Amino acid sequence: MKKFQILFAMLFAIATIQSVNAQSNKSDRLKNVKASDTLVSYICPMHPEETSDKPGKCAKCGMALNLSKKELMKAGVVKYTCTMHPEVTSDKPGQCSKCGMNLNLSKKEQMKVEVMNGYKCPMHADVTSDKPGKCSKCGMALTAIKPKTKD
Fold it and tell me: Higher-confidence residue: 66 or 62?
């Protein structure tokens, strides 16, 4: 009978140790998943595969890492983009450095204009006002912005 109790105690100890190891392995896996899901906010302009979560230099070419386009959009820095070259962005209206086309409002800025009540120029979506008037760029009359409604 004593052998049976010793055997039972050993099996119980082994099962407890395995349970503890399984739980610690699970928490280690969760830590690894969380660490790999960190947001990348800096990229190399020449090597987009070179990324970092903090500013620094590219390991391949030594250029300074810049904020990613997503981070620039969040910060409100990017207001204009080229329709043909989405990587060309600016905080001011102008022309694309690659093709010469006019830069258009970014998607975020377009959404702001759509939500805003007021007036905008039919030719220059970035020219808006809270009262009627004329466009500062072309002189056309500003038209009322009609808020979009869900059907």
Answer: 62
Model's pTM, two decimal places? 0.34
Are 53 and 38 in contact, with CB atoms under 8 Å apart?
A: yes
C-alpha 1/C-alpha 78 separation (Å) is 79
φ/ψ region of 118 (left if φ > 0, alpha if ψ in -120 to 50, else beta) reads: left
For 85: left if phi > 0, alpha if psi spans -120 to 50, otherwise beta; the answer is beta
pLDDT tens-place string over residues 127-142: 888 788 999 889 999 8
> CA angle, corner 16, sides to 13 and 17, nearest 5?
85
Residues in CB range of 63: below 8 A, 6 or more apart: 44, 45, 46, 57
The one-character DSSP state at 115 is H
Angle, CA 52 vertex, CA 50 and CA 54 arms, to 5°? 145
